[in-house]
Amino acid sequence: MRRPTIDPGIFKKRRERLAAQTQGAAVIVPAHPELIRNHDVHFPYRQDSHLYYLTGFEEPESVLVLRPGMTPEYVLFVRKKDVHRETWDGFRYGPEGAEREFGVDKAYPFDEIDKVLPTLLEGVEKVYYRLYWNTEFDGHLQRALESVRIKQGRSGTGLLPIIDSSEILGEMRLKKEPIELEWLRRACEISAEGHVAAMKFTHPGVNERQVQAVVEYTFRMHGSPRDGYGSIVASGASATTLHYVFNDQPCKEGDLLLIDAGAEYNHFTGDITRTFPVSGRFTDVQTRFYEKVLQVQKAILKMIRPGIAFKSMQDTTIEMLTDALLELGILKGSANHIIEQQLFKKYYPHGVSHWLGMDVHDCGLYKIKGESRRLEPGMCFTVEPGLYVPLDDQDAPKEFRGLGVRIEDDVVVTDLGCEVMTSKAPKEIHDMASIIGKG
Asked: Is the predicted pLDDT of residue 2 greater than 90, yes or no?
């Protein structure tokens, strides 16, 4: 018998917080469907973050129905126990195991969803559900809503209103609880270990794929069950492609290597980017370019504190990177004109930050009533300025063409400022030089 790896009481408290905000409603959260990789081989399965956040249940073909104040209140639909399938695919809890191990009030087999779900929706006033996120399950819900409407006869009542659950669950997940910060810090520490191992391993002649293998091997050896996202290992001009995925080129003498990779731990993920020279030594041109980005990143980290607007970090980043592009001679003219016309986007096309947590681009509102959100203690996010000069950019000075640099750390807002959770991954030129190729 398998046991939950995390105290079910943690998930119960989260459901209680959600129930306090959704009285009279039903909250429905389905699992992600399994996806075919090729022929009859599936991609490795990872549970939907919202479902796991509320239940701790990791199996596919599962659905949470939470009905605050009703009986049963906490309902799960799960796969049946099936000895034959378990012989091939591994252990299943089944309805009885779900009730015993996860504190479920009532569990049903998933294949009874169309029969049971309509009965669970009778008497509720509205439904919290994210339409179009899981189109496979949308049909089940639509049939259940129509069944409820028909049972009401000539009451004049229409379909139950559906409210997108993204906002309410996103806001719950935005500010991290102490145990969640513990898990996220560990994810960041493991992520940093992977980046350090990559620096030690890298030398001219290795392949990007080999570096990726070292990063992800280190993640596993330090307790991470999976990566938080697909690793980016981009050498030379490939670093100017933001989401480079090939990871198959040789790392050459004189090139920079950009690695964007993060480890997951207890369903929380780190997200680190480091850029360093394959040979261990920056050229003078690379040093000038790199230090401009590092200067911006340090400035943003210093400005983080409770009360500042999230957008202010991006505004400051744009101003500082625009000045850097002018100082390097990559852009010419007035800084105000460049910003007004967004000419900087050619070399800095992304934001400096995004929420971080169970998802690498985590949930939570960035604006409230049209205004940029103010930072509060417990909010976690990335700080990742970058500059990227396309190899074929005839407008930029030749010495900068093909250079791509991004420096990314993960932070949590504290009462007085912020804590950098990824500080064990070196980013100062002299610190990196002391370990690159020394593995």
From this structure: no
Average pLDDT over residues 382-390: 99
What's the average model confidence in pLDDT over 237-264? 98
Q: Considering only the C-alpha atoms of the chain, give the largest distance between any 2 of them, rounded to a whole number of Å.
A: 80
- Whether 348 is a known active-site residue: answer no
Which is catalytic among the residues 271, 359, 409, 410? 271
83-118: buried (b, 16+ CB within 10 Å) or exposed (e) per residue?
A: eeeeeeeeebbbbebbbebbbbebbbbbeebeebbb
**What is the full DSSP assignment across 348-364?**
--S-S--B-SSSSS--S
Decide if 105 contacts 93 (C-beta within 8 A): no
Asked if residue 434 lies in contact with residue 295, where contact means CB atoms within 8 angstroms, the answer is no
40 carries an active-site annotation:
yes
Q: Which of 37, 39, 40, 84 is catalytic?
A: 40
Q: Is the pTM of this model over 0.70?
A: yes
Q: Which of 354, 373, 399, 401 is catalytic?
A: 354
Report the residue count for the chain. 439
Q: Catalytic annotation on 105?
A: no
In the residue annotation, 260 being an active-site residue is answered as yes
pLDDT tens sequence across 143-199: 999 999 999 877 778 899 999 999 999 999 999 999 999 999 999 999 999 999 999
Please report, for the chain, how many H helices and E strands are present, in that order. 13, 21
Q: What are phi and psi of 65, to 5 degrees?
A: -125, 110
Annotated catalytic residue, options 243, 248, 371, 395? 243
HSE-up of 76 (CA within 13 Å, CB side)?
A: 30
Is residue 39 part of the annotated active site? The answer reads no
- Average pLDDT over every residue of 27-49: 97
The active-site residue, picked from 48, 193, 362, 408, is 408
409 three-class SS = strand
The whole-number pLDDT of residue 439 equals 84
Distances (CA, A) of 72 to 50, 108, 114, 121, 227: 21, 12, 18, 12, 37
Any catalytic annotation for residue 384? yes
